[in-house]
Amino acid sequence: MTEMLNHYVGLLSWLFQIAFFCTLLVALTYARRLDRLLRQVRSDYALLQSALPQFDLTLTKAAAATDRLVHDLRRTETAIGEATESAEAITRKLDDSISRAAQLLASPPQQTPPPEIARPATRMVMPRPSAGHKSRAERDLARMLIDAS
After folding, report:
1. Residue 123 in contact with residue 80, Cβ under 8 Å?
2. What are the boundaries of the region Disordered (predicted)?
3. Of 75, 104, 124, 145, whose CB neighbour count within 10 A is largest?
């Protein structure tokens, strides 16, 4: 029985050594992979550290460009607002002129002015040649003025 026990202990010893050896091989394989990955991470880290100043400069330039765009946007917004207000004022004046011209055409004058005041000889109103792009309001006003004279 002692011999059999020694035999089993020897077999168990061998099995334990084989299992230990396989575990060691697996651990060495993973250690090599981990070493490769660590070397790659270190090189990537060095590359990232060298690129950080460039990223900082790029971010600074982008922030400055964004600030300039916001400033230009505000200036443009102000200019468009002023132009819109000016156009509204001009439109109102033009509408008033058109309505006055329409009223003058609708009701003939009560009294005829003297000829030298009505139409001075030195200044004759000649219809302008049509410019290619006129707005509808300009064309209507020009027609009314031509019809009135």
Report:
1. no
2. 101-139
3. 145
CA distance 149 to 94: 19
Taking the whole predicted model, whether its pTM rises above 0.90 is answered as no
Rounded to whole angstroms, the Cα distance separating 55 from 57 reads 5
Handedness of CA 107, 111, 112, 117 (dihedral sign): negative
Over the stretch 59-75, which tens digit does the pLDDT of each residue have?
999 999 999 999 999 99
Which residues lie closer than 8 Å to 134 by C-beta, 6 or more apart?
142
Provide the token pair at 148. Answer: 């009135």
* Distance in angstroms (rounded) separating the CA atoms of residues 3 and 12: 14
The DSSP secondary-structure symbol of 110 reads S
